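Researcher: Following up on the earlier apo prediction. This time include the ligand. It's zinc ion, with the SMILES given after the sequence.
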Amino acid sequence: MAQHVTVKGLVIRETDFGDNDRYITVLTEEMGKIEVLCRGIRRKKGRLAGAVRLFCYSELTLFSGRRYTLSDAELDTTFWHITENIEHYALCCYFAELVNQTVEAEQKMEGLLPLFLRALYALDKQNRQIEVVKAAFELRFAAMMGYQPELNGCGACGETECDIWSFLLENGALMCHDCRKRVGGTYFSVPQGVLDAMRYIVSCPGKKLFAFAVSEQTAQQLGTICERYLLYHLDIHCKTLEFYHSLFQLG
Ligand SMILES: [Zn+2]
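Model: Understood. Below is the ligand-bound prediction.
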């Protein structure tokens, strides 16, 4: 039976079709990820059109029939600066692609919407280190998708003290120096600063996820591990990530 529903959500994809229509993909807490048809929206200007653009967080009134159709929208929070900074914008497009590729329609994932909103907030309003926001989002998202890394001690022998830890990509586990020699796989060296950051990311309260800074070298190592780990386990390839990396190879 058709009816109206009201829900708050973040627009994470826009797909134009026909002459004036657009589908938007919206990440919500209560309904998961939903597709909403916005009829005639590309002809419209003003309040309604401005509330359903990419990376707008809005309260949407939807007509719920065979599909969701936009009836009204009220902007709650906008992240204007994201679109003015090409690196920030590219990173958020990558986050959106991660969610679009891996989260099923109407699959509820607790904490995903707050994670995305906080990442936008950290970049747009708090000017957090971009490498930190990227790595923290990736590792936390991996954990949310069922790939929480095991960082307490060696994943093979249980040892908790080691001078040079390694991270085994395939198992998402730390390996001590001795076990690394006998267990095959793809390894990354994990200096203490990187390990501290990884432990912080998987265990801190969501509100504090992006509230840390690391040296440039740590950021680089942390970034490589989190990115490779996430993409390996989700088994996906993101075009938006290639674009993001290309921005740092210019100049
Ligand atoms: Zn060991």
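Model: The chain is about 40% helix and 25% strand.
Researcher: Noted. I'll compare it with the apo version next.
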